[in-house]
Amino acid sequence: MSKALLYDATLCIGCKQCEQACAEQNKLPYDDKIAAEEVQSVHKFTVVMAKEDKFMRRLCMNCEDPACASVCPVGALHKTKLGPVAYDAWKCMGCRYCMVACPFGVPKYEWNNNLTPKVQKCIMCTERVNAGRMTACSEACPTGATKFGDRDDLLEEAHKRLRENPKGYVNRIYGEKEVGGTAVLLISAMPFEAFGYRTDLVHDPLPLYTYRVLSRIPDFLPLAGALLGGTWWITHRRDEVAAAEGKDKNTGHASGGEQ
Ligand code: SF4
Ligand code: SF4
Ligand code: SF4
Description:
With 259 residues, this protein is α+β, with helices and mostly antiparallel strands. The longest helix has 16 residues, at 220-235. It has 10 helices and 9 strands. The strands form 4 sheets. A 3-stranded mixed sheet has the order 8-1-9. A two-stranded antiparallel ribbon has the order 2-3. The chain has helices at residues 17-25, 32-35, 67-71, 97-101, 126-130, 136-140, 151-164, 206-215, 220-235, 238-244; strands spanning 3-8, 47-51, 54-58, 77-79, 85-87, 108-109, 119-120, 146-150, 184-187. The structure holds iron/sulfur cluster (SF4) (3 copies).
């Protein structure tokens, strides 16, 4: 059975222990300065955002039918049977199609890594989940705001919470249907748009749309070959590309806003 995370923002106290546990799990740095950052980046796979007295998490949604994996020409990203969308860095050729395809703006690119740049994102603690353990963020959460379990069970629980306390929540389980469903489910008292979540997403899996478009373009394959060749060349000129796209080469972050 597919696993998932249920994040109930009404139980979250903003302690950021999930962020810290994620950093430890992924061998990433974590200090007060990083804790204050509210954007996902190559060194921060999950963020806890605050607005007034409300909180909201962001992380890779680990989509049921991930657009990032569907466009990856070398299969570096793939949905696992247990739910996580895993990443094989050794396969990645740095084309960054996944970054364009993701409807949640999740994958980030290591602009500062000149030798072996990779894409970075939450992989839902793939190894832990494969070993029958819960994710590091859910294990660290002191209030149960981030809960790990079977997706079907968590969905049922989310519906029950909304049913029993309709005034306490926005009437939506974010991730139940968006882009065909995701392995991260969110419920909240504050509208999701307030935290930058898109609420205009289709309910069909995005790879289906990709297929529909491509099936109407008979000449797509030769075109794709040419594009991939161009992408390889572009990737190997990443410094120039980064400058052209307004990336801050010192931090590796986009100089503008995110998401
Ligand atoms: S949220 Fe984006 S990066 Fe994560 S699985 Fe879905 S499409 Fe891929
Ligand atoms: S599931 Fe794992 S990688 Fe993803 S945010 Fe939680 S701790 Fe980080
Ligand atoms: S550890 Fe739990 S309570 Fe603390 S910020 Fe993360 S989700 Fe919220």
